[in-house]
Structure formats: C-alpha cells, structure tokens
Amino acid sequence: MVGPIASLSQLHRSDGSASYKCPATGYSILGAVNGPIELPARRDALKPEEATVEVFVKPGTTTGGVGERYIEGILRSVLGKIVLGREKGFPRRGVVITLAIVGGENVARGDNYLTILPALLHTGLLAMISASVPLSMTFSATLLGVTEDGDIVRDPSPTAAKAAVSLHVFAFSSKNHLLLNESEGRFGFDTWEYVRERALSICQGETTASADGDVAMGEGTASASVSGFIRETVEDQIYSDYAYKLDSI
Amino acid sequence: MTALVLLPSDEVPQDHLPTNNSNPLRLGPGLRILSQPSSNGSNHVLTATQAGLLTTDAKRNTVSLLSFPNRRYIPTVNDFVIAQIHHSSVDFFHCMVTPHTAHALLGQLSFEGASKKTRPMLKQGELVYARVQSVGLGAGAEVELTCVNPATGKADGGLGPLTGGMVFDVSTGMAARLIRASSTSAENTDAIEGLAVLSELGKKLESLGGFEIAVGRNGKVWVDCSIAAESAVKVTVAIGRCLQETDQQNLHTHDQKKLVMKILRDMKLVS
C-alpha cells in the first residue's frame, strides 16, 4: 500500500498552505489558509465570541456546484470544531480555508463526494497547522468501501467506489474520539461496527482487540497509521525550518 | 536534550520543563494550561495548541513553542512594527500593519516632541516605525500604535516616520530571527541565529557607506542607504533580494555568504 504524500508551506503569500496527494484514490489537493482576517459584511453576527471558519472547495476544471457546497458544509463543521476560536486575535475574525482539487478524476455532478473527503480533510488540517491557527486537537480520516462479498477495502479508487455496496468516511481525533462519520449505501449495524474498528486501526495504528480477536494485521506500527503520517509530515517541515537552530544544539 | 516537536493537543513532558523554581513558569505562545480533574483534586497539564518546536529558557523560566515561520502576525503589546499610513483623521493616523485586518490607530500626537502646532503631516502610503501600545480587550478591539515611549516622551530605538528607503516583505519568522540576532550581544557577530547575511553585507558594502535597516515584527524590513549616492537604488535592491532569498530558501550560513557574493556581483556592486 502506497501511502499519501504531503508537504507544507509551499505557497508564500498565504499564511499557511499544504499540498496532499493520495496515490490510492489518485486525488491531489492544494490547500491555503488565511487567518485571522477581517471578514466582509456581517458574517460574524451569529457567533460574535468566536472565529468564523469558512471553507471553499474548487474543482479543477469546472465551477463549484451543489456537491462542493455539500462537502464544504461537512468540512466546515469538522474543521470549525477543532479551531480554538476564542484565542487572542481570533474572535469576530475569519479563518478562510481554500481547497483546490488539482489532480485526480473529476467528481462529476451528482457523483459521490465521499471518495475525496479524507484528502480534503487532511489538506485542510495540514494547512491550518502550517498557518499556526490554534487547534484543540488534530485528527486523521480514512475512506473505506464494503464490496458485495463483504470485504472491506481501504481507500477504494473512484471506479471501485462506484461498485461498492456502501462507503464510509471516518475521522478520529488525536485522542481516539470519533469526530466524523459519513456513510452511504446499504449496510447493517454489524458491518458499520466492523468498518469503524478497521478505520480506527488504520487511523491510529492501534490493534483494537475486538471480541472475536479479529484484528487487522500489518497496520500496527505508528508510522504506517494515518495519524503517524500527519505527525511525520509536520515534524519534517519543522526540522527543516529550524535547521539553523537544531545544528547548534 | 533532543529537539521535541509538539502537535496540537500534545502534552509537554514534565522532564522538558525548566527546573528553576525561583520565579513562576511563564508560558509563551502556542501553549495553554488545562486542568484535569483526578482523584486527588485537580491536576494541571500543559498542552500545545499549535505545531512547533518546544524551546525553554532556563534563565527566565519560560517555555514556548516555535511555530511555522510564515504565519500571520498577530499584534502583541511592545512589538516593533513597520506600519503604512492608509489615511488620517482628526485625531489618528489609520495604519496598515497586516493585510486583510482592521486598521491600527496611531495618535496624531504620539510622536517625539509633537504638539498641536508641530506634528508630522504624514500622507497616504508613508511609513512609520512604531511600537504596539495596546491591543484592546475583547472582540473587535482596535490596535493602538505609538511612536514614543510614554514613560520618557522620547522616541527610543528609532521610532518615528521612515523617510526614503524601501520596504521588503519577509516571513514573520525571519523578522523575529533578525530581531533576535540584533538584540544578542555584538560579540561574535558571525552567524547568530544562523544568520550571516547581514554581517556579510555590512562587510562588503562598507566601502559604499553602509546601510540602515529597520525590522518590523509584522514581517517587513525597511532598507535605506541613501548615503551611497548614485548606487543607492542598486544597493537597496541587493540587500532586499539577499534577505528575501535567505528567507524563502532557508539558506545555511555558508550559502548565505555565497548568495551575498553572487547578488552583489550580479548587480555590479563589487568586482
């Protein structure tokens, strides 16, 4: 399994940015974050004591439509929850996250948007970390598909996702709490529970012992987990940014 | 001690905290204190809110997190900034400190020796080197700047209007580095904070009369060398390019020296 590739702070003019490429699904996303900035009009009126988080998703070849608005709503609720919007300088200001889909198969109108959701979530998180927006926690997300035979497939490609009976996106916080659950298709409670356990082991790299002892193998090491990947990406960038400081230690 | 990188929600390990107990521990940016209820009362833990390198200062008993260098500048009291006048009103100059944020206010009379009769008449687009006086409390508060030290009435540290010269944008991390490098003692000026670029430029440009520089915490560097007469523009641009390239490419000290030599040769300032 080829892991994702990500790098931070590639854009110079934005406060924070990240690029993310997922070879399994083929998507490549470029994200930029600006914040805290003054918002036009009175968009702060709903929650004057907190920062407003705005998310924009730009498809590579067309203008945004209903699908993008739908996914923006999901992203805004997840990313907005982890931002500490009451820190100094943030209340009544905005954190604007722009995610451009620069590569991969186009999500046509009416198509399923769940396949791209983990990539968008990770790009948004990494870009916010790179902009030093205060966060209460980090998270990791994964996409799982259930085939007709009942097999659970990790990061199915768009064609495999179309053939799947059900699709599930899970996001877990760095403290292993479930942050997001988006499921689509036909599935039962048992299937959902299996998928959730599998997703947790993929995200956190922990072998969660289920009742029948059926644990996913080969995903146990921390670096192979998605949260380990996020940590390594951030650490690499900080080590290279502060190389001058680390040399003298 | 090994370098420790923390991500949001990571706890600061006890053994990384400074052990000097003479004065209370001070928290820098990027860290917060959380109390966790436990069986024996409550228990305090320090957690990170940003990703960064954990640094401690045993002498001053501080612990802080060095975050990414290209982050946005958030005004903090006593920071030195380079502000641009946007417009002026009866009592205030409205200045731009960072893009896409509300204007900061600079009192018409907060200059050295200013009175109703004699005060600087700054126009739109002019620059001032100012200190952040207050950031206000609560949401939507205005940032106030000043160009005098309120205690002495003097313009300490070169505060006031900046005439001539040119401003270059650098990252906020680079600006902080330049300020730290200049505030450390003048002994062994070679490569403090990994910065050799300024001392190298100083050596090479000494024959042309040297240059003047002002660094704002908001990621602006003002460079002036009007003393160099006909080559003033060239020297200013060369210094700006050296600083920006060092920042963007995150150059090592020996690469910085090479870069200075290359740019000065390109601009035909040294042979």
How does this model look, in words?
The complex is a heterodimer of chains A (249) and B (271). By secondary structure, chain A is α+β, with helices and mostly antiparallel strands. Chain A has a single domain, classed as GHMP Kinase, N-terminal domain (Ribosomal Protein S5, domain 2), CATH 3.30.230.70. Chain A is built from 6 helices and 9 strands; from the N terminus they run ββββαβαββαββααα. In chain A, helix 1 (66-82) packs across helix 2. Chain A is globular, with a radius of gyration of 18 Å. In chain A, 45% of the residues are buried. Chain B is of the alpha+beta class. Chain B folds into 3 domains: 5-67, OB fold (Dihydrolipoamide Acetyltransferase, E2P) (Beta Barrel), CATH 2.40.50.880; 79-162, Nucleic acid-binding proteins (OB fold (Dihydrolipoamide Acetyltransferase, E2P), Beta Barrel); 166-267, K Homology domain, type 1 (Ribosomal Protein S8, Chain: A, domain 1, 2-Layer Sandwich). The radius of gyration of chain B is 21 Å and the shape is globular. The A-B interface holds A 8-9, 12, 15-16, 34-38, 48-49, 82, 84, 87-89, 91-93, 129-138, 173-175, 230-231, 234-235, 237-249 and B 1, 3, 5, 7-10, 30, 49-53, 66-72, 74-75, 99-102, 135, 138-140, 173, 193-195, 248, 250, 252-253.
